[in-house]
Amino acid sequence: MTNETLPKTAKLTLGDHAIDLPVMVGTAGEVAIDIRQLRAKAGAITYDPGLGNTGACLSKITFLDGEQGVLRYAGYPIEELAKSSHFVEVMWLLLHQELPSAQQLAQFTHDITYHTMLHEDLKRLFSSLPKAGHPMAVCAAAVGALSTFYQTAGNQTHEQNWIDAIRLLAKMPTIAAYSYKHSIGQPFMYPRNDLSYAGNILHMMFATPCEAYEPNPIVARALDLLLILHADHEQNCSTSTVRTVGSSGANLFASVSAGISALWGPLHGGANQAVIEMLMSIRDGKRTAREFMELAKKKDSGVRLMGFGHRVYKNYDPRALILKQACYDVLGQLGKKDPLLDIAIELEQIALNDAYFVDRKLYPNVDFYSGIIYKALGIPVDMFTVYFAIGRMPGWISQWLEYQADPEARITRPRQVFMGATPRPYQPVEKR
Ligand code: SDX
Predict the structure, then answer these.
(1) CATH number, domain containing residue 165
(2) Paired strand residues for 23
(3) Terminal Cα distance for the chain, rounded
């Protein structure tokens, strides 16, 4: 159907009662039935666990077409941004849904550069936590703690929210690097204002006070590409979490801290760490690739092909296609080889020729190849999801700001279908 042929309403018949519900069409042609009056008109609610069929908001930021394997940030295809843009420019694009002018980009880059340091008192938070703690827990705590330093955060003007956005974009790499330095007992490295965003991340992660350190430009470019590819992905679990927490009026730092926690899960951003651990288990002979794949097809095996499958993509995740090629490019440029890439390719080939995966439209997602590149860049495995969070930061913030500006926005409060006990009288304990 086209916009012209599409009916303006959808008819719902429930017994002898029929109602008409408005039909909406997005700018990319997706069709939605507006059910905001459903309960009032039909006395019924919908049931959609996981919300896979439910639009929670109108948004102009990112568009996915899962059937076609399309991803666009404000209309710009991810393939073109990956090839021609850089992460700070993509931050602006997501936040404004327009590419910046040269002057806007210069000012934005300056503003971020000059907000990268953390308050000296915040540094004590890291040293108060166990070195073996997962860095995602440390980062969620540190980001939440930012609101103790910026106490006006909350119901603010757009200008005040904007400075909090700059603070978060600027300080997330510093927080990430400090969580790593604390875990290995090395001194924190202050950010450097002469480095690029990605170069500064590498500096704060790998430099020491003992000698000069210059980030490898190949590594910095590869990291910048990874950050672009992770920057936003419409209403995924962690972004929906950021919107939901913000919908209560909680401040940006609290909302993003919750998003970091949601991203940590192995079904979401935590999958990039799980993929490498999966590939390593095969490399180290725990089981062959084929043995692994047979287990991954058995529900009760407790084994899942991590980095495969997606709620929206029922085709190849376009980011995975870019990352697969980047694996070869980066390993080649760095003169490295990694047997894990060969194992990943073998698993993919098995899956693409196995009815279990083909029938369920399970393809590699963004997490399947990303870890191989992080590993080639020298990033420790338990930091992989933290890097996902650094990349997703502009997405979370832009979606949070869009929610704040949405006149139709309401506090998120889904309904349920109650399946529990019917009314019954209290029984004193001696009678139970
Ligand atoms: C991210 O939403 C986003 O946009 C997320 C993200 C982003 O940028 O924000 O793209 C990032 O989170 C990517 C996904 C990373 N997670 C993983 O790689 C973990 C492995 N994948 C899955 O667990 C799963 O595919 C999900 C969680 C990604 C999607 O889950 P769904 O949509 O709820 O799908 P499902 O679990 O209902 O699976 C449908 C079927 C089931 O089999 P049947 O019940 O039909 O027999 O496919 C099977 C599943 O058992 N299945 C898998 C599988 N993924 C799904 N079987 C084996 N291995 C897998 N990886």
Answers:
(1) 1.10.580.10
(2) 33
(3) 61
Together in a domain, 163 and 124: yes
- In the residue annotation, 110 being an active-site residue is answered as no
367 is catalytic: yes
Catalytic residue among 164, 232, 317, 367: 367
Q: Do both 124 and 182 map to the same domain?
A: yes
The tens digit of pLDDT for each residue in 404-424 reads 999 999 999 999 999 999 999
Provide the number of structural domains found in the chain.
2
Residue 300 to residue 297: CA distance in whole angstroms: 9
With a CB cutoff of 8 Å and minimum separation 6, the contacts of 343 are: 279, 282, 283, 289
127 and 58 within one domain: no
CATH at 55: 2.20.28.60
Residue 169 domain boundaries: 78-220+253-261+383-397
* Distance from C-alpha of 32 to C-alpha of 146, rounded to nearest angstrom: 38
Using one digit for the tens of pLDDT, what is the confidence trace for 307-321? 999 999 999 999 999
Specify whether 53 is located in the same domain as 163.
no
The per-residue pLDDT for range 180-204, each reduced to its tens digit, is 999 999 999 999 999 999 999 999 9
- Which residue in 224, 230, 310, 382 is the catalytic one? 310
Any bridge partners for residue 208, and if so which?
Answer: 211
Cα(266) to centroid(ligand 1), Å: 10
Judgement on whether residues 97 and 216 belong to the same structural domain of the protein: yes
Q: Is 310 in the pocket of ligand 1 (CB under 6 A)?
A: yes
Among the listed residues 328, 277, 338, the one whose alpha carbon sits nearest the alpha carbon of residue 303: 277
Q: Are residues 119 and 23 in the same domain?
A: no
**Does the global pTM surpass 0.90?**
yes
